[in-house]
Amino acid sequence: MKSLIFKTASTYLLPLLLLFSIFILLRGHYLPGGGFVGGLMAAIAFLIHSFAFGLKETQKIIKINPGYLMPIGLFFAVGAAMAPYFIGAPILKGLWFEEPFRFIGMVGSALFFDIGVYLVVIGATLTIMFSLTDTV
Amino acid sequence: MLIAVILGFIFAILVSFFSRFFKKAIPFVYSLLPLSLFIFFLQFLGEIKSKGHILFHYQWIPSLGIDLSFRLDGLSLLFALMITGIGALVFIYTTYYLKGHKYLDRFYGYLSMFMASMLGVVLSDNLMSMFIFWELTSISSYFLIGFNNEDPASRKSALTALSITGFGGLVMLSGIILLQAVGGSYSFTELLNSSEIIKNSTSYGWIIALFFVGAFTKSAQFPFHFWLPGAMKAPTPVSTYLHSATMVKAGIYLLARFTPLLGDTFWWNSTLITVGAVTMVYAAIHSVLRVDLKSILAYSTISALGILVFLIGIGTEKALLAAGIFILAHALYKAALFLITGIIDHETGSRDVTKLAGLQQVMMPVAVAGFIAALSSAGVPLLLGFISKEVMYEATLQFGNWAIILTALAVLTKILLLVAGFWAGIKPFTGALPEEFKKAKLPSPLLWVPPLLLGIMSLGFGAFPSLIGQTLIQPVFSSISGTDTVIQLKLWHGFNLVLILSIFTLVSGGALYWFLKPSKEIFQKTLRFESISPQNIIESGSKIFASFAGIWTRFFQNGYLRNYVITILAFLTLLMAYRLFGGVNIYVDWEQISPVSHYEIIVVVLMIISILFAISTNSRSVSIVALGVVGFANCLFFLFYSAPDLAMTQFSIDTLTVLLFMLVLVKLPKNKQYSSKGIKVRDAVLSLMFGTLIAILTLEVFEEPSSYEVSKYFADNAYLLAKGRNVVNVILVDYRGFDTMIETVVLVIAAVGVYSLIKLDLNPSKKDL
Amino acid sequence: MEILLIIIIGLLHAGGLYMLLRRSMFKMIIGLILLGNGANLLIFLLGRLVKGHPPVIEDGMKVFADIYADPVPQALVLTAIVIGFGLQSFAIILIKRVYNVLHTDDLDELNSTDEEI
After folding, report:
1. Structural domain includes residue C117
2. What is the pTM of this model?
3. With helix as H, strand as E and coil as C, how does B437-452 read?
């Protein structure tokens, strides 16, 4: 996996794929996509990078241990689920801002929920794959 | 009322907190509990006398018809008074008896738990809650019998007692459910109104049979009696409290309680008379064959319980009255005898009736208590035992054709019990004091005051029956018999047959006591018959049961996963195949089938080939790649048929799986052929059958018209309610958001599992080296 | 087309079961994955096959104007795929771990794991 082409390509692939994964995540509510797919895409992006440059380099880019993404994601998901509770509505009721945001579109609790899923999927997948590559 | 019942549980829970800080204070604090409850129940005497019964209602599980309603009437009040009154004495007694014991706090916890559950049993109006309390008494009795948990014999006895009484309780539960099905309610008070319906229903026989098993196991009736002597392994206060005064009477209570509801039929009466008579005679004979004081008392208790069952079985007004008085009389004198035995054991270290003698010289007050108790058990005039005996003889004499036999049995039992009572209450105190017991001395009043108090009550109630006649016995009688007959308790019944019988009993019992000396030889001789005793039969039965279970388990749980899978699936396949061949039409509605295009055929062929490859190849890499192809083909199907989300997800997952496999498994050794050809063929046949079955089932389900209501609702409201256009995503994050949330948790768990599996160091010792 | 898919589903189940019954742990996992694929396809098929109409409401519309593929089985399968991935990865790591400790791929040799490891 030390080919120069692969390395060079993956340098550019990583940000592109990440951007694409976020795009997939955001459009999930309107078009095919969503947290699961987006998370998997992002995980694959990091994986490709780690194949090209080695695990250490990738971990440097991510900065934090991917394991931490899981609780953060869970926090998002649970928070989005619980948010209606604090304003007196039933848990998991969808809440939406009145006006759409630029680029993102409508923002509501469902979106935060999806972001939570996205983070959990990245965290879980990367934890699994990295801890494996670590030992092999 | 609710608080009165559950206070014991609260105390039992609190004990663990208390014990940390005021271990010393526990005995005294806890002795106050039964005492105050006793006073609490005393104040109901007047109200019960005038009103008959009081109901207290607390909701618990209304949807199942289970609530915590309590019914206080004569019978339950008598029991509640006995439970708390004798409880108070036992609690006080224990403060000295087990002084300084390591687990004294625990002991009090169990005791108060037991007291509370026993109160629950006798007070519950709802049969379900009564059952729960009933089982709680079994459980707390298990703890108490096994209190000396370092002694294997203790543990075994505790387990025997628990399994017998617990078994009986479960049988009774089915009786309760049946009763509810017939009578339409769990509430005893409501059921009373439908007594006739229940008695005439076809399940009446079952109901009483099931209730009998529950009552007989709890009250140690033949042939379930053997757990009670074993239970004497418990500390003496426990034997006093549970196994003579209260818990074993729960069965009696049950029978007495249900007499107005289920009683007075041929099967009810004859079963109870038979079982009661057998038990009372059998146990009475046993009691004079023992030499250990506690065993003597245990068997005489069983015998007394037999008498009670017998009396309830006779079922006439006199008999029920006799039962009511005898419950009280027996509790008073038997508890006293047990407590005295405890004192003797505590002071001399011996319970051997052949050795004990002359202790009156060193412990006079105890001797007095013992004398009173023994005389009451013998039925000497002026004591409560006398009145109960008189009424009992009157009852048996009135019983038509069988009067002579029943009376003879009752007299025989009474004579033997008299001997047993004298051995326990008089023999240890009279005669010359042997050398070895010279050192014994009078213990603290905490020990001897409780039996003395009980003795005084026997004497007081016996000499002045009017003290309890109207206040206590009358309501008890009314609630057992269900009639309003006014009763009279008299000391002097006139010179009649009953009195002659009484005198005969006393004289011949006294003579027997004089001539029959307790001896070990006779006891040894009876051991020959042990092999056919109910205890041994049931124990060997349970051994056979256990070994059968062992064989069964080893046959099916043989430790090979694939054998489980084969067994389950072969069974399933055959069963379903049988159904399918038994008349299900397999048809295909071609209208519904969509046309096939050429590129789809390519994918299908690709898929089939790759499945075959994945199965048949011996190379690891090939099978992984084949697996990947299967996944991608799947992905294409999703794409063809309008599921872009699925296709994307499947694609990413498939990529990851293949990568994972490659990373991990390439380093494993070459695949080996483990199985022989025959096994392979067998597995292949089974698998093909299973696959065919699944395919046929799928076809069947596919042909069934399905309902789209849910999908339609989701789709119609996706934008209107959830502001999303991608319905699949809306389902995931909105409609079924909770599922998704849990799913992410599962994923996290999987990741944590993988992480810890990899980081797990199975050989930590290496680090230390 | 449905008939072909049904055949494939049967084949996936048969193959999965066959592999599950093998003594090699590696083959067991293959079987597990095949079964998972079969089950996913089964659920998907029972939502009926609709070509070219994904369950996505078109721009500017508030409800579906045309027919659409059943979204419920799709959501179910999507969940199943992701969970399946968790299961597979755990199983794969497990057999690797077992192999590292016991140096065998044979299930029958796992019966004697009480020895020190």
Report:
1. no
2. 0.65
3. HCCCCCCCHHHHHHHH
